[in-house]
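Quarterly update from the structural biology core.
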Amino acid sequence: MVVVDHLMMGVSNFEETAQRWRDRYGWAALYGSSFDSMPGWGNWIVPLGDTWIEWIGLLDPTLATDPMAPLFQAAVASGEQLMGWAIEAPDLAGVAARLEVPIDTHRATGPAGVTSWRQAGFTESRTRPYLPFFLEWTDGALRERSQRLSGEVGNPMVNRTGVSMRLSGDQRAYEAWIGEETMPAEFSPGPPSLQALLQAGDQTIAIG
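Predicted structure, tokenized:
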């Protein structure tokens, strides 16, 4: 069985979203990094022990000249949106070959230094959010860092096995995308959508 590595949300304003989440969930968010290959873009992180929620957004809109920036800003204008979810793939090359998709390499620079990773299927997941994208971290200390930060800011410790998904869309496409692997997910017919359920202690928190 595969498990969710982390969730990805789009936000319009990091500081305002951080205050809103502090009031709503009691969770703290921290600046993460800027994306080396995408000027003006970056992330904040909500560390949750074994996993985390990544907020994606524009750190400096004046530097973001790519055509995706205005489309992204319109999508998150009314509030943060759960936009994707990642699965860590032990054999990323094998997954990419099976799906016939390329592998992209990315780097991000933040207070903790440089983080790099490889991913596959991200383009497809952007248009069909019920599909995860697959990744391979080259920073082995990333999960330990999330656990440490969770303790420092008082966020709950969530195990990756305690994250499940509620999805709707093309179930056959989803099953073909996942392959022979299984994971905790409920699928229902309807327009493309996703929601995550996080087991935090004796609470189940719905995100999205």
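The mean pLDDT is 92.
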